[in-house]
Write a structure and sequence with these properties.
With 115 residues, the chain is an alpha+beta fold. The protein has one domain: Alpha-Beta Plaits (2-Layer Sandwich). The protein is 31% helix and 34% strand. The protein has 3 helices and 6 strands, in the order βαββββαβα. Strands 2-5-1-6 form a 4-stranded antiparallel beta sheet, with helices on one face. A two-stranded antiparallel sheet has the order 3-4. Helix 1 runs antiparallel to helix 2.
């Protein structure tokens, strides 16, 4: 099997919706990391202190054939069409270990899609 990692920087209020949408589209799990980011627009400040938007970085290891569907689901659930609501991207992964418990589910989904 070929895998990709999808990394999604998501606003906290959209996190649960994004995870649910990704799982509905084929993701079998997620790792959540606390993160902060900076884009083109400056952060708001209050008495000279910057108020940064806290985000979560969601990491999904997914079977390659589900990656585009999962990215589309993340885009919709996270309202990424709105300025500053998040970003998601995928990378190819050379090797994955520790997925034995998920392999049966992944193989079943692959059979349904291709056979």
């Amino acid at each position: 099997m070929r895998f990709k990692v999808i990394i999604a920087m998501v606003e906290e209020d959209h996190q649960e919706d994004v995870i649910a949408a990704a799982k509905s589209a084929g993701a079998t799990g997620v790792t959540i990391l606390n993160a902060r980011g900076e884009g083109l627009h400056k952060h708001k400040s209050f008495f000279g202190l910057q108020m940064e938007q806290q985000r979560d970085a969601l990491l999904f290891i997914v079977e390659d054939f589900h990656a585009n569907e999962i990215l589309d689901a993340i885009y919709k659930a996270g309202d990424f069409h709105e300025k500053g609501h998040g970003i998601a991207f995928s990378w190819s992964v050379d090797r994955v270990v520790g997925t034995e418990s998920q392999m049966r589910v992944l193989e079943g989904k692959a059979e349904k899609k291709y056979i």
